[in-house]
Design goal:
elongated; 490 residues; mainly alpha; 44% helix
Length: 490
Amino acid sequence: MSKIRTRFAPSPTGRMHVGNLRTALYAYLVAKHEGGDFILRIEDTDQERFVEGAIDIINRTMAGTGLIADEGPDKDKGYGPYVQSERQAQGLYLKYAKQLVESGKAYYCFCDKERLESLARTITLEDGSTKEVNGYDKHCLSLSKEEIEANLKAGKPYVIRQNVPAEGKTTFHDELYGDITVDNAELDDMILIKSDGYPTYNFANVIDDHLMGITHVVRGNEYLSSSPKYNLLYQAFGWEVPKYIHCPLITDETHQKLSKRSGHSSYEDLLEQGFLSEAVVNFVALLGWAPTDNREIFSLSELVEAFDYMHISKSPAVFDFTKLKWMNGEYIKAMDFDAFYERALPIIKETVGREMDFETIAHMVQTRIEVFPDIPALIDFFAQVPEYDIALYTHKKMKTDAASSLKVLEEVMPILEEAQDYSNDALYETLLSFAKEKEYKNGYVMWPIRTALSGKAMTPGGATELMALLGKEESLLRLKNAVEKLRQAV
């Protein structure tokens, strides 16, 4: 068996959609699982959609996800150039299109826009049923050689169209969907070379895939309908057809196609929302593929080992944002602390707004967040106590309420005022001794103090941890304010 060669061929039109990232990932995994080569090719022939800086986005995304190409624009191994506009400049596509014209498999079309817009027609299928289509009617196929030459000489605008057989059927094979047969009458004579001289995506990728020796073509199943036309091109040239792997649609939670409006449809959107690249790759791998053991957490190297494209589903994959957040949380928990601290420190500093033991705060939050933007809501009370309802002091399990909390705080304040050591361990021992002496349960003492310090039902640390971080002066100030608040209410 020849070495597997796959490619990822994005168009530089902006941020990389999650669907494109999955195509890149699956193409990478298909190749690497068998020790093959993964190629990056830039398909920039649609000049109208070209976005400045988009090639940089593609390169950043590939580097950030670890999907490093064996060949590409910066790594030519004899199949380059790997940018279609550069290949176009060599006259490559026009040469192959003219070859098809000479063999009768393609033809020049000089029809203007107005005529093309008037071509809605009804066709009869093999089974006798009819269907309304907007395809081209082969009008220019009947032009004589002399008419064509005269038009070309006069500089009349033209496109080159594929000459699809009007009758019969075309069958192609997909590794997941099996054999698919379509009536040729349903297939349009698609444009191969546009009026600007550039090839269409459909034509260029067939030429490039063949010339680059691509053995497996991984793409979204929206291209299933175009595959018969690709096959007819391969047949017209007498080339071997690659294996097709069409991936399922990705939908949002409402089962609509994942769109930019969702706010998390691109790789860079997700990074900006605090997701880790490794978690995104792991999550995207499971959008349409599942390992046999239902495992969910994979590094990229583990995905390479486990990936079997025959286990890709044909059913639409739902982008479950809640699951992605859970998965990201698992990755954050497993992060090396120094790496986590580097990412978290700017957020902590901005939220707290004054000097504190930021490292201890980072240790507190690392196991409690799913994405980095979760941090402020956990620690914003360090900047100042928010407005809160005294109902927070009521805790059934601790058997506390506003009145009991006021009593505990009034009793414990003198002890905390006298305490010199405000380290967590020393404060903890002090409060345990106080609780024991008063015959209170520990939680009966700790809950009111923690509530007074934070104004929150949930904090990333306990009462003594918060006091140690806030320091003696700030802790006592907050406790005094809480006592005043409770006295006014009780």
